[in-house]
Amino acid sequence: MRTAKKIACTVAMGAFLLVLVQICGMLIYQVDLAGWIWGMVSGQQTKEDPLVPAPENAEYPYVEQRMGYEQLPGEAEQLLYQQIAQGISKIQTEPNEEGLYPIEEIVYEGRLQEASLQLVISTFRNENPEVFWLANRYRYAYGSDVTTLSLYSYVSPERYTTMQRNLNRIRDEIFRQMPNGLSELDREIYLFESLSKRCTYDTETASGEENWKAYTLYGALVDGKAVCEGYSRAMQSLLGCTGMESILVNGTSKGMDHMWNLVKVDGDWYHLDATWGDGEEMMNYQYFNVTDDRITRDHVIYGSYENLDLETASAEDLQNTNLRLPVCSATAANYFLAKGIPIKTLHDKTNPQLVDAIAEAAKSKKESVSVYIDESLDFENALDGLFSKTPYLVSHCMGAASRKSGVELETKRSVFVSDPISRGITIKLLYVDAEK
């Protein structure tokens, strides 16, 4: 390897570090968003492995997520995106000093600013959740009218093949159990519930322990442990495999960096936060297909990258941005409005529609049922009437549903999650035989 001559000091820039190195007239930029510095890699044997596409469900066509690609500011960025896609699985067989496996270098004819490179890489990553092996680090160099981009894999080609096989096995299992002829909303519900049953929130990684897989669909679907990014990428992939569009959203929630999905259902866009929907006690649907107005009550959505000047912006500037997101104002596919049993009166001790819903759910050993409180009722008073005061509607309905279904349900104790903003309540079914 030729000796590298540093021509500038290491500069700490927020969440990442940048080193400028000069080799025979070329400027080499080594960028790591996690704040690590790593060496250059000499030529090594490359094993080319074709990118394995997402498995297609027999009934629904696979939908590529292309909104980000189409929003890239110019042909130069779109061409680089295509080059990344063509070479992303060309992983070298030997790791570098940091244990990462170099991916075949991309040579772009022309000079792209750092912000443009970061934008293209982020856009590619956020539209291709199946590329779970792509490390969150890259290196670029400027030569004579060319830009050279180096990407890295967390795993070797052999490990990649094994992991891809594991991932396909899990997704095939999910799709085999998926009923035929589902509407887009019912597909989304099925996939959300399948993910929630399979995955738990990775509190260790969230607290700082390093586990790159927790940020990927592999962590969510195969390992069964993920943080919000893993949940969101898994949902995006599963939705795409069943013919539905989805976009990743960057922002904050509960004072922390957060990621969730936009999902297109019957032509309208909605917010879906699968992470907060997977509660410790039970699944809930507070953030299932909600509007911009609802999500921004307790989430912050980062602005569009279009507000930045890519000629002067840094990679750090782009970290807290999104695509130009579509407006989410429709309510037809909101879970509580579409699937919740309507509660319009509390004058009676029973509600035949709720009894039937509980009985059917009990026969299938489902976890919960949901209700929607009509706007004519005061929400807090309705909560009292359902659970803690006359007419104790839920208790009476549980008893009637037990008799109708032949499945014994707890009637004296209730577990539920309520959302006054969406006027929805999810009620857990407590099976007596399961508690003995």
Shape: elongated
| Helix content estimate | 25-40%
Spans of at least 5 consecutive residues whose pLDDT stays below 50 are 1-26, 33-52
Number of helices: 16
Mean pLDDT metric: 87
DSSP, total strands: 21
Q: Pairing-aware structural class of the strands and helices?
A: alpha+beta
Distance between the termini: 69 Å
| Biggest sheet architecture | 8 strands, antiparallel
Rg, rounded, reads: 25 Å
Pfam family, one: Transglut_core
Keywords: Membrane, Transmembrane, Transmembrane helix
Organism: Yeguia hominis
Domain Transglutaminase-like: 220-276
Written description of the protein model:
The chain has 16 helices and 21 strands. The N and C termini lie far apart (69 Å). The strands form five sheets. Strands 1, 2, 3, 4, 7, 8, 9 and 10 form an eight-stranded antiparallel sheet that branches. The chain has helices at residues 67-71, 75-87, 114-127, 157-176, 184-198, 203-206, 217-223, 228-241, 274-277, 292-295, 315-319, 335-339, 352-363, 379-388, 393-405, 432-435, and strands at 5-6, 11-13, 16-23, 26-32, 46-48, 90-92, 101-102, 106-109, 134-142, 146-153, 200-201, 225-226, 246-253, 256-265, 268-272, 288-290, 299-301, 341-343, 368-373, 416-419, 424-428. The chain has 436 residues and is of the alpha+beta class. A hairpin with a 3-residue loop joins strand 9 and strand 10 (146-153). Mean pLDDT is 87; it is low at 1-26 and 33-52. Helix 2 (75-87) crosses helix 3 (114-127) and helix 5 (184-198) packs across helix 8 (228-241). It comes from Yeguia hominis. One of its GO terms (cellular component) is cytoplasm. This is Transglutaminase-like domain-containing protein.
